[in-house]
Amino acid sequence: xxxxxxxxxxxxxxxxxxxxxxxxxxxxxxxxxxxxxxxxxxxxxxxxxxxxxxxxxxxxxxxxxxxxxxxxxxxxxxxxxxxxxxxxxxxxxxxxxxxxxxxxxxxxxxxxxxxxxxxxxxxxxxxxxxxxxxxxxxxxxxxxxxxxxxxxxxxxxxxxxxxxxxxxxxxxxxxxxxxxxxxxxxxxxxxxxxxxxxxxxxxxxxxxxxxxxxxxxxxxxxxxxxxxxxxxxxxxxxxxxxxxxxxxxxxxxxxxxxxxxxxxxxxxxxxxxxxxxxxxxxxxxxxxxxxxxxxxxxxxxxxxxxxxxxxxxxxxxxxxxxxxxxxxxxxxxxxxxxxxxxxxxxxxxxxxxxxxxxxxxxxxxxxxxxxxxxxxxxxxxxxxxxxxxxxxxxxxxxx
Amino acid sequence: xxxxxxxxxxxxxxxxxxxxxxxxxxxxxxxxxxxxxxxxxxxxxxxxxxxxxxxxxxxxxxxxxxxxxxxxxxxxxxxxxxxxxxxxxxxxxxxxxxxxxxxxxxxxxxxxxxxxxxxxxxxxxxxxxxxxxxxxxxxxxxxxxxxxxxxxxxxxxxxxxxxxxxxxxxxxxxxxxxxxxxxxxxxxxxxxxxxxxxxxxxxxxxxxxxxxxxxxxxxxxxxxxxxxxxxxxxxxxxxxxxxxxxxxxxxxxxxxxxxxxxxxxxxxxxxxxxxxxxxxxxxxxxxxxxxxxxxxxxxxxxxxxxxxxxxxxxxxxxxxxxxxxxxxxxxxxxxxxxxxxxxxxxxxxxxxxxxxxxxxxxxxxxxxxxxxxxxxxxxxxxxxxxxxxxxxxxxxxxx
Lengths: 399, 399
Ligand SMILES: Nc1ncnc2c1ncn2[C@@H]1O[C@H](COP(=O)(O)OP(=O)(O)O)[C@@H](O)[C@H]1O
Ligand SMILES: Nc1ncnc2c1ncn2[C@@H]1O[C@H](COP(=O)(O)OP(=O)(O)O)[C@@H](O)[C@H]1O
Hints:
2 copies of one chain form a homodimer.
Chain A: E1 2-8, E2 13-19, E3 25-32, E4 39-47, E5 50-58, H1 63-74, E6 90-95, E7 106-107, H2 110-118, H3 127-140, E8 145-150, H4 160-163, H5 169-175, H6 184-198, E9 204-210, E10 214-220, E11 223-227, H7 248-258, H8 262-271, H9 274-279, H10 284-292, H11 296-320, E12 325-329, H12 330-335, H13 337-344, H14 356-360, E13 367-368, E14 377-380, H15 385-398
Parallel strand pairs in A: 1-6, 6-8, 9-12, 12-14
Antiparallel strand pairs in A: 1-2, 2-3, 3-4, 4-5, 7-8, 9-10, 10-11, 13-14
Helix pairs in contact in A: 1-3, 10-11, 11-13
Bound molecules: adenosine-5'-diphosphate (2 copies).
Main location (chains A, B): cytoplasm
Keywords (chains A, B): ATP-binding, Cytoplasm, Kinase, Magnesium, Metal-binding, Nucleotide-binding, Transferase
Binding site for ATP (chains A, B): 14, 209-213, 283-285, 331-335
């Protein structure tokens, strides 16, 4: 089975092709700056452990033109990964927002598309790009089954006490204002891997996804019972450029006393805050460099970032009344030993003891960085959202 | 020493008079609806275990007129508590917001008044009423030393990682946007009592103040290291009418997609949310009644209220890497056994075990409601902010 995984944004398309018998992709690529001029395609084919990279600079006015170029690359002599676009059996689409009605991986019908469109007000930056990706994929991969995999779906098992806000009922009923949670494909993937590793299906696990966006999930026996992002991906942890938790009155103060408007605040809190707001950089590698150069601002930002994670570890341990493992994943979680160290030191009251030595080492794949006597396992598990999407597509179609 | 404690709001004045040798007030009272017509004074004198209540309905145009009536009651034959207003040695004023500069109980000078006024933008609902109270007290109790006791002061020991938001630095430096925390007089009082009770000066304590407003504090060796309210008293726990934590994007969504303005959101989140928003009632007694009558909304609201407390208990245990006691206080914390039960059951992973039997009983004073095997003590300690203010005034003037 050939599974083509697409993550279609407002001006970009990311993709990977899997043969269903392997966890390694056959090719992967990125189309950037769609409709913005100076568009770029980077297409990488993996053959016998080697990478063949093709880069194209050309004008791509819309998603259809972009996908048409990708289609040509898939069959291009010398780097062909399929004989014919019709050899693609399934296209798996990553969809950020599935709301309360799209709670499972599902074959895309007109009704499903309609529901994704109805969620535009809740996901104005994401769902419109996904619909473009679906429509283009439908016109190009005509023989393929189109499947939607939702970033919110894994969190739909949360109990009402965890997903409701304490505002009048009608805001939930009329506008759907509640905690949805995001990064669900990643939280599901790494918690599944942790359960396998622990050989404990009823394990109590906290997954910590630290990329540009950051979120945590409390996963009890494979089911998410709480998560740190909310109505949108702004809430919770401190991120590359997002503030995470903040007193809502800060916004009211800035509007009423300092003349800000909603558009300015949206940009401030999503694009100019977080690590970037505190240090001028959003990439943890730059901020680590600042720390090494003696920057107090960078040291404070790291402390705040790690402290917020610690508090969620405590909160979710209390919510589950127990903890078997915590899992670090994504760019920062997989690579930044300092963040893991700072989040886990002096946590023996919660049964967490990290091995400074193990933690400092760089190794590929799943690894256990807890001290031998630690009651709670501290795991580093590389996330793989594309593989998870491919797996879910395969599982759906084999049922 | 006669210490007159005043809590002056925008349209009310609460007061108590203490003789410094006793923890029981000599009299207490409330002036309501100042400047609103149909004003009311309720004045209670405590003599030999009896209460003598005087109620007056009259027109009180401003704080000065109100305090003038109180002055008359203090010396009124039959219920006199002092011979002469000049017998009042100290007036202790509760001040909500002391910002970063007023961090300790202090004698009120012109400079202190100026600083309280500079904080009007951060505390527009409170500090102006306090200044009125101070000026009236200065003109009526001319011989008394005027002392300010701040609700924010106890939280000023928090480390920077706990009090900073992840927004650009200049919002902190230019506007003072940070976590201040409130209810500090209460958190200080009950944590002090808990330390005495445990006979452990370096105890790790979580104080849970549940009144109409609700907040928690992590108190390590007598010093606050974190608290749940933020720039304003809106953030953190679910309260009678306030939402507590909410994704800041909810506000942006309501402004951009539903046409709300800042004034409407301020009112929505502060006055129409919390338990009131979820059930139509803000008083826990009414909501308990609804539960007993089978209301699902009331049951959910209680679950949410208790769940939020549990998560902060976990978060603060992680922050302190340990926990010796949790303390419930204020109207709900002292009286609502169901909230305490729901917040503490299934928390043995954190070392918390509540005694259902002890917890269900109503008793005055400090009491221990933990199960005998509980590692963490669960205490109920009645708060007494007026007494704490009087104690702090006395301590200041005896130095
Ligand atoms: N070696 C490293 N050390 C520290 N941080 C790293 C390292 N490599 C990547 N990162 C961090 O990972 C982030 C990107 O994570 P990633 O999971 O790719 O993000 P996303 O998928 O959310 O865009 C970068 O911004 C950087 O902060
Ligand atoms: N017996 C009781 N059972 C449950 N809740 C109670 C009881 N008595 C008082 N309360 C709660 O206490 C709240 C008031 O608490 P209090 O500490 O006096 O508030 P504040 O000082 O913040 O105005 C009431 O709104 C009510 O919800």
